Amino acid sequence: MRLLFRNTKYNKNGARCRVIDSKKGVLVIILTYTLWGFMPIFWKQLAHVPADEVLAARIIWSFILTLGFILLINGGRQLWLDLKSLWAAKKKFFLLMLASFLISANWFFYVYAVSHDRIVETSLGYYINPLISMLLGAIFLKEKLSPAVKVAFLLAATGVLILTFSFGSLPWLALGMAFSFAFYGLIKKTIRLDALRGLAIETLFVFPLAIGYYFYLFSIDRVSFLQMGLSTDSLLLASGLITAFPLLLFAIGAPLIPMYMIGFLQYIAPSLMLLIGVFIYGEAFDVIKIISFSLIWSALILFTSSKFLEARGVRRANRKVSV
């Protein structure tokens, strides 16, 4: 933290404001990842509702809540302009549609894992996600991987392989969450949209499907909403807020701090998920998992350290050029 704010505290021309903004950004991002980390406790309260209905409710109420907030802050015109701009560039339009299906799949994997007592596996998915994102960047965006990142990826892959052999099958929920979110991030990297309006548009793509699916559930009498009591209804309604609020916080905090700091802080969420799964819900964390996670943690330490040193080198080079 000291490194982040050093050399700027007493600069002239608004530097003190930049320090305050940076501190604010760090606090907001920590709060965001902490909320994401504690989310299993919320979704666990909906374990009695099938994951497919929870997903449909999450899409519907996320869209309604996000759209309502956008209209409340007079962002409706900009949202319409975003839609027109996307439609004019058909490739971006359909890429964002694909992104909406990917994030919906990610939500489903996550809710399914929590409701089936596999919270530890969700933490595994979000631990390995940054490494998969780096691999996709190298494949699709031709980004160069440093030797440290290559070693980190091999360590993480070894950890996943050990888990696979111990399970007798692939940890498909963890890999599904990691790959769906990594591909989602890859698409989002090529399409610049405000986080709040972006969420509204992404959920708009799948909103009709979610509504249609709810009608189907009603038709076969397999629906929980309005059938299982006020508590369940309130939780399903709150799923939209639980989805949208951390994203809004992230949109506020992310521009205020460097990317490497965001990358470092993102491990708060899976760490909390792991602790919640093991110590609150009593999920198994045996020797095999300890070995596997240790390899993955070593990979993340190596990965994060290399990115940190790389960012510091860039800052030093920029200071020399400015002098």
Note down, in words, how this protein is organized:
By secondary structure, the protein is an all-alpha fold. It has one domain (16-110, 122-322). 81% of the residues lie in helices and 0% in strands. The protein is built from 13 helices and no strands. α3 crosses α5 (90-115), α5 (90-115) packs across α9 and α6 (119-140) packs across α7. The protein is globular, with a radius of gyration of 21 Å.
Question: What are the SSEs and their pairings?
Answer:
Blueprint: H1 2-5, H2 15-44, H3 51-72, H4 76-88, H5 90-115, H6 119-140, H7 147-167, H8 172-190, H9 195-219, H10 230-253, H11 259-265, H12 268-280, H13 287-322
Helix pairs in contact: 2-10, 2-12, 3-5, 3-9, 3-10, 4-5, 5-8, 5-9, 6-7, 6-8, 6-12, 6-13, 7-13, 11-13
Average predicted confidence as pLDDT: 85
Order of helices and strands: HHHHHHHHHHHHH
Strand content: under 5%
Total domain modules? 1
What is the gyration radius calculated from CA atoms? Answer: 21 Å
Q: How far from one another are the termini?
A: 25 Å
Number of helices: 13
Instruction: Estimate percent helicity.
Output: over 70%
Strand-pairing-aware structural class: mainly alpha
Largest pleated sheet:
none
How many beta strands in the DSSP annotation?
Answer: 0
Globally, the shape reads globular
Regions with pLDDT < 50 over 5+ consecutive residues? 1-10
Question: What's the quick description here?
Answer:
By secondary structure, this protein is mainly α. The protein contains 13 helices and no strands.
